[in-house]
Design brief:
Blueprint (H helix, E strand, L loop, with lengths): L20 E10 L2 E11 L4 E5 L6 H8 L7 E6 L2 E3 L9 H10 E5 L10 H11 L5 H14 L15 H13 L5 E5 L7 H16 L3 E5 L3 H7 L2 E6 L2 E6 L1 H4 L6 H11 L1
Parallel strand pairs: 3-8, 3-9, 6-7, 7-8
Antiparallel strand pairs: 1-2, 1-4, 4-5, 9-10
Helix pairs in contact: 3-4, 3-5, 4-5, 5-6
Bound molecules: adenosine-5'-triphosphate and magnesium ion (MG).
Magnesium ion (MG) binds next to helix 1.
Length: 266
């Protein structure tokens, strides 16, 4: 009997190969507070990096700099072929900002879905308005993406009719609809019950298997141990540890990481 063909996801998350993300000497201040202190970090294509660390350590700020939601003062950020560097007015030039946002999807703890649009409408809004896709094509792909995150049956539900885990999966489908080559996730399971967390983390593990470059801020140490290629600890605006989960989580080198992990792990 012939061997069954390996199952191939119908809608690959990445139409193109994944890309690398690199920060070189990035410094960011708010007023006189140094929030990111000379951060250098490499995320090779297809790698999953879990960013952990104490509250206020700069994790969200770092992700926001990558997606041009924040500016920074010094250093450079490479996203695939693009280089982010503030110009003389301290801004990232608009065209680069747009290109980088196309390559990097970002998902937040509070979903940020449009409340007046159904799940499907949320997913297809940007492909139609930004990518200028034909509505029928966007709809067809949107339905496939919702199917992919296990929500085909809820395509026409509004956000208030969905559970937290379902809303977060719609947010993932919406990010994927823009055909990103990397995803930034900022504590996307923090507001969810344990079972719903599992649903969302399963989708991320799937994306990782497909080769998506993932940089995720998470307090899910179990997930980081299982799914991350690398764990980076950010505290007080500095990277205090960076290595495989077996090293950073199971044999941390710094007192700062040990204290943080003992608090999170209870
Ligand atoms: N818009 C802002 N203006 C001034 N300070 C800010 C602003 N945004 C963040 N900060 C400060 O920057 C520091 C880092 O904040 P950030 O949100 O990056 O931390 P975090 O590591 O994501 O923390 P948490 O785990 O609580 O989400 C904090 O001291 C915060 O108060
Ligand atoms: Mg944060």
């Amino acid at each position: 009997m012939p061997m069954p063909a390996p199952s191939v996801p119908e809608v690959p998350a990445t139409a193109q190969p994944p890309m690398s993300i690199k920060l070189q000497g990035v410094t960011k201040r708010y007023g006189s507070n140094l929030i990111l202190d000379n951060i250098s970090l490499d995320v090779p294509p297809g790698e999953t990096v879990a960013l952990i660390g104490p509250s206020g350590g700069g994790k969200s700020t770092l992700l926001r700099c990558l997606n041009c939601l924040n500016t920074f003062e010094t250093g450079q950020i490479h996203v695939g072929p693009h280089v982010l560097q503030p110009d003389s007015s301290g801004e990232i030039p608009g065209p680069v900002r747009q290109q980088v946002r196309r390559l990097l999807g970002m998902i937040f703890q509070d979903f940020q879905l449009f409340p007046h649009l159904t799940a499907l409408q949320n997913v297809i809004e940007a492909p139609i308005n930004v990518l200028k896709k034909a509505p029928d094509e966007a709809r067809e792909r949107g339905l496939k993406l919702l199917e992919r995150v296990g929500l085909a049956a809820r395509a026409h539900a509004f956000p208030h009719q969905l559970s937290g885990g379902q809303k977060q999966r719609v947010a993932i489908a919406r990010a994927l609809a823009m055909e990103p080559r990397g995803l930034l996730c900022d504590e996307i399971t923090s507001a969810l019950d344990p079972e719903l967390k599992g649903e969302v983390l399963d989708v991320l593990e799937d994306l990782k298997r497909e080769g998506m470059t993932l940089l995720m801020v998470t307090h899910e140490i179990g997930f980081a141990r299982r799914a991350a290629d690398r764990v980076v600890v950010l505290a007080g605006g500095k990277i205090v540890e960076n290595g495989p989960p077996s090293q950073v989580i199971d044999a941390p080198q710094t007192e700062r990481t040990r204290t943080f992990l003992s608090r999170v792990l209870g």
